[in-house]
């Protein structure tokens, strides 16, 4: 049962409380054999929102986001980016979207600059514009000092940063980021937060998944909690968490594991 359903943010027409939907998921469903990873999920991300998707391991977040951006074909349902169907109008939808997938695979025997230049050329960005953007992104992500390092030799955090840079390169209006802060050090995380806040302040929309509740509370104005393939709560942050913290609300809705709470008896003494 959804506590603060996405219906409250509006579904059906193109507008959400007077704002256009940046991302609209309708009945998205994915089955892996007998496992239902995502069960008929409806979700609306209003334009200009900073949207946090949280849920325990295996809740279906990556599967949902992969279907939302066209990386994984759903068994049923639809995803629209600013009204452009991800499956019916992929060129338009993908031009509007920047994606940081989970387990991003990229051409690895390139330096960061070569990788960004390559992706920019694939995107058809004018070479003069591209060179400037690549330099700015390398500077902002603090990857300039690793100028000679191949992506294959990057640390996990550096891979997140170069992945985010590739997502930003073409100037999307919607960013969909799967665990963007995982393994990123606090200094780099602060830089990433500033970039994302600036992106939203400039009219962009961000959807990110994370396990780190304080981070989601700090950054996001709208949240959805997923469990067992379903959205169990969604809406403005204050509405979803009420008087509690997001973490308390999360644990209450998702339910802890009784075995995990008991701990390991043999380790106690
Ligand atoms: N390709 C696949 N084949 C089979 N099962 C899959 C596949 N991808 C995901 N699953 C299953 O679907 C469920 C949802 O997985 P998913 O990766 O979407 O969860 P998640 O919320 O992103 O988890 P985490 O927070 O641990 O990354 C899990 O039970 C997972 O084992």
UniProtKB/TrEMBL annotation:
InterPro entries this protein is in?
Answer: AAA+_ATPase, ABC_transporter-like_ATP-bd, ABC_Transporter_VariousFunc, P-loop_NTPase
Q: Which CDD domains match?
A: ABC_DR_subfamily_A
ABC transporter domain: from which residue to which, for each copy?
23-253
Q: Which terms does the record give in the GO molecular function aspect?
A: ATP binding; ATP hydrolysis activity
Q: Which Gene3D superfamilies match?
A: P-loop containing nucleotide triphosphate hydrolases
Keywords for the protein's UniProt record, in alphabetical order: ATP-binding, Nucleotide-binding, Transport
* Signal peptide residue numbers: none
Under what name is this protein listed? ABC transporter ATP-binding protein
Organism of this sequence: Actinoplanes awajinensis subsp. mycoplanecinus
């Amino acid at each position: 049962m959804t506590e603060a359903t996405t219906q409250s943010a509006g579904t059906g027409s193109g507008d959400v409380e007077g704002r256009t939907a940046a991302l609209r998921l309708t009945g998205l469903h994915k089955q892996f054999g007998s496992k239902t990873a995502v069960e008929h999920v409806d979700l609306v991300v209003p334009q200009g929102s900073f949207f946090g998707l949280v849920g325990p391991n295996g809740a279906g977040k990556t599967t949902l986001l992969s279907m939302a951006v066209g990386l994984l074909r759903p068994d049923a349902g639809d995803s629209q980016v600013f009204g452009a169907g991800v499956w019916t109008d992929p060129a338009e939808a993908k031009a509007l979207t920047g994606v940081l997938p989970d387990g991003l695979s990229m051409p690895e025997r390139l330096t960061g600059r070569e990788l960004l230049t390559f992706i920019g050329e694939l995107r058809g960005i004018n070479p003069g514009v591209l060179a400037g953007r690549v330099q700015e992104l390398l500077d902002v992500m603090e990857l300039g000092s690793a100028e000679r390092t191949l992506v294959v030799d990057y640390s996990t955090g550096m891979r997140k940063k170069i992945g985010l840079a590739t997502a930003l390169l073409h100037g999307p209006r919607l960013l969909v980021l799967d665990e963007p802060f995982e393994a990123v050090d606090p200094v780099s995380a602060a830089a990433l937060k500033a970039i994302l806040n600036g992106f939203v302040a400039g009219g962009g929309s961000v959807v990110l998944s994370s396990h780190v509740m304080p981070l989601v509370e700090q950054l996001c104005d709208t949240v959805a909690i997923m469990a067992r393939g379903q959205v169990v709560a969604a809406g403005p942050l204050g509405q979803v968490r009420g008087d509690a913290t997001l973490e308390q609300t999360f644990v209450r809705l998702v339910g802890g594991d009784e075995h995990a709470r008991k701990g390991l008896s043999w380790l106690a003494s």
